[in-house]
C-alpha cells in the first residue's frame, strides 16, 4: 500500500493525502502546472517534501536506501532525453542486465523491431515505447510478484491510438496482479476506461479523488480545467465519453 500523508512541497503540492492499495490504478488528471509531475517525483522519493510523508507497505521512503527503492519502484519521467547513440538492446541491457524482454511487454509495446537501432534515431512514439519497457524491466521481478510501485508521467504522450490502448491494457493486467499504478496524462477517455480511481489536481491541491463516475462529472471538470465539458454516455457499452464544448 502506498500512503501519502499531508504532503506539501513549496507551492507545488499542498496538503496532499492519498492512499493507494495493491491492484489500484490511480490516474492523475489536471491542467498544466497542476502538480502531477511534482507528486509523482515525490511518490518516487526523488523530491523531498517540505512536510508530510510518503510510505510504502507501512515504511517511510525516508527509511529506505536508493537500492531498496530501485528494487520495487519505477518512475517513467515525462522528459527523458536521449543524446547517446546506444542501441535499444544496449539500453535495456543496461537497465536490467541479463533479463530478456518479457513477452507481455513485447506484445504491448512491440519494440523488438527496433532492437538494433540507435535510441537517438527513433521516432518520438517509438522512443516512448522503449522508455516504458525500460522502466518496467528495471523492476520486473517485483512486477511479476505483484509487489511493485509503478509510476508513470504521461507515458501515452506521443503514442498512437492503438499503442495507447495496448499500454493501458498491459498496465491493467499488471495492477491485476496486485501492483500499484499511479499515472498522469491528459486523456479523459483513457481515464474513464482504465482508472479504478481518478485524482483531479489543480494549483497543487487534490480537488477530487474517486471513481471515474464520481470524478468525470461536468461541474468538477469545469472547475478543474476552466472550460465547459460535456459528458456523454455510450449506452451500449455503458461507458462515459467526454467532449469538450468550445
Ligand atoms: N524544478 C522546479 N522548481 C520549481 N517549480 C517547479 C519545478 N518544476 C515545476 N515547477 C512548478 O511546479 C508547478 C507544478 O508543476 P508540475 O510539473 O508538477 O505540473 P504538471 O501538473 O505535471 O503539469 P503538466 O501537465 O504541464 O506536465 C508548476 O507551477 C511548475 O511551474
UniProtKB/TrEMBL annotation:
Residues 2-228 form the ABC transporter domain. SMART domains: AAA. Pfam families: ABC_tran (PF00005). GO terms for molecular function: ATP binding; ATP hydrolysis activity. This is ATP-binding cassette domain-containing protein. Part of the ABC transporter complex HmuTUV involved in hemin import. Responsible for energy coupling to the transport system. Keywords: ATP-binding, Nucleotide-binding, Translocase, Transport.
